[in-house]
Amino acid sequence: MSRQLYGYLRTESFPTPFCSGCGHGTLMAALIRAINSLSWDMSEMLFVSGIGCAGWIPSPHYAADTLHTTHGRPIAFATGAKLFNPRLKVVVIGGDGDIASIGGNHLIHAARRNIDLTVICANNMIYGMTGGQVAATTPPGAITATTEAGNPDRAFDLCRLVEAAGATYVARSTVYHVVHLVKILKNALQHRGFAFVEVLSSCPTHYGRRNGAASPTDMLNLYKGLCVGLDSASRDSATVQGKILIGEFVRGDRA
Amino acid sequence: MGWSTVRAPLSPGRHLWQGDEACAEGAIAAGCRFYAGYPITPASEIMQWMAHRFHEMGEGIFIQMEDEIASVASVIGASWAGAKAMTATSGPGFTLMLENIGYAIMTETPCVVVDVQRAGPSTGQATRPASGDVMEARWGAHGDFEIIALSPWSAQEMFDLTVRAFNLAERFRVPVFVLADEAVGHMRENVVTPAEIQVYERERSAGLAPFGSEADDGVPPMPAFGQGERLLVTGSTHDPWGYRKVSDSAVQDRLTRRLVQKIRAHQGEIIAAEPYMADEELDVLVVAYGFTARSARHAVKLARQAGIRAGLLRLITFFPFAEEAVLRHGEKARNILIPEMNQGQVVREVQRAMAGNANRVHLYAQTNGEVICPLRILSEIKRLVET
Questions:
Q1: CB–CB of A69 and B235 under 8 A?
Q2: B72-103, pLDDT tens digit by residue?
Q3: Which superfamily, per CATH, for B2-201?
């Protein structure tokens, strides 16, 4: 990360705890770039996270107020802080297990309320911190520590889930598409109402290793090959069969 | 910061309130301006009254959350944003809250959690009173900690002790439990409210370590989010500035000892127990709490009329436990009777306090979902005197 952005970070907490090839460092930097491009003051921002690798993206690295909560509950904690002090710009960052599995109820209810939060789900399609167990976002057939014969279940499409629950900004990007990611995060931060961004974030250590993408570049190439921009394909067309759509799915107003 | 006297939100006087309503009024009088909850019998009236009063006052944030886990989570989030915050529930919801209550203990977050106890286990009997959650409050969260829990016996005390719960929460930076029971929560009686309320406001000094103190029993200052302090708050083991230290044994030891000591070393400020006709040699000392203490007081009166030297020690705080008061009064009694709406929870604390004289301690357990009647306690007193 360029040194001009170090002011946004508690650099004394470096190096980060992330494995080599982990996408979370890229996401950490992308969000700071988005905040920097908006010239926002970090002392007016609150970052709320839960338990899991992604919970460590803001805590302790971001030089702002940070609330590192229990597993699955960051959106509920953030709701209380935002309601009592609406001047705080509140961003929730968590992994797919945290935000969409154990915390799934809080996710859909916050979307329903359209509360003014930005929720970023770093989706690595696996439980990384605990050793690579199957997640609610693991693709069918994928090998994990708890599905040796392949995942028998389907994966959540988190963007569709959150859209159906009433979120007024919904987008997806990846840590491969960094320029796109920064633009999406910037839009999400500026959105008034519930903004949800799913960020595919690579976990070569626990996901890639078991599923034919063992190196960091393998995983990035996987995203490169798998993702199709929403601009170049309609959401339900045959061209996106087996692909992952990235882009802004919902860009509404508070209504 | 610290103690101050504020005008009460209502003009002083007499109000006919349900216990649950009095609890909500106490919270508002203490400065509570954030409430989050989820419906559950017999505590829903607290939530409804908070919603009603915040609306009427034109201030205060009320939100009905998606479950009890989220309720206490948002209370903790609001507390860090600077609020005096509360939630109320009953057994099933209280159990759901426990993980985040542990988080509040670890992060030293002031808040008030009211549990209007009903008969359990599980769904049990939602409209019937019990005292089955006393030890759950004490030990329910995982890990090792000290807590503060209060025991109201009247609508008046639902008001008074809720005010006190907020003051203790702010003073010691802890979640404080008001452990009521269905009978006290749903009972309607007169409550007298004062013109002025003594309130404690948390210390918010900037620039100091928010999770450490030089004293082993210190309570550090707690600035709010948005104050420019760039706070690091985590439920993981942390150093005085909030940095995670997940494998440093010295940090773990110092933090967890202080979390306990900040309460234990100040228990004289916290513990409250009220003797009634119990300052002399006694045939039977009744140790009671909550609604049961009302019956016990009446039973003591009747026993006196029958010529039995009976007395009552009413526990107003469960925890820290009033060991010294129990021992002082218990030493002068031939028998100690503990009537409880459970199968023996506080009796164990009394036995522990009585140490070598635990054989004097007797339990009367009633868990049929009904309050314990004075005559029932009287017959237990007589039985002890006769044997």
A1: yes
A2: 999 999 999 999 999 999 999 999 999 999 99
A3: Thiamin diphosphate (ThDP)-binding fold, Pyr/PP domains (3.40.50.970)
How close B383 comes to chain A (CA, Å)? Answer: 51
Asked if B226 and A109 come within 8 Å (Cβ–Cβ), the reply is no
CB contact under 8 A, B230 and A65: yes
A48 touches chain B (CB under 8 A): yes
Rounded Cα distance, B170 and B104, in Å: 12
Q: Per residue in B3-35, pLDDT tens?
A: 999 999 999 999 999 999 999 999 999 999 999
Query: Residue A252: which residues within 8 A CB-CB, separation 6 or more?
Result: A168, A169, A193
Split into its structural domains, chain A has a count of 1
- The matching CATH number, chosen from 3.40.50.300, 3.40.50.920, 3.40.50.2300, 3.90.226.10, for B273-386 is 3.40.50.920
| Contact assessment for residue A113 and residue A85, using Cβ atoms and an 8 Å cutoff | no
Residues 6+ apart with CB under 8 A from B143: B102, B105, B106, B256
Instruction: Give the residue numbers spanning the domain of A198.
Output: 22-241
CB-CB neighbors (< 8 A) of B224 in chain A: 85
CATH number at residue A216: 3.40.50.970
Q: Respond yes or no on whether ipTM tops 0.90.
A: yes
Give the burial class of A241: count Cβ atoms within 10 A of its Cβ; 0-12 exposed, 13-18 middle, 19 or more buried: exposed
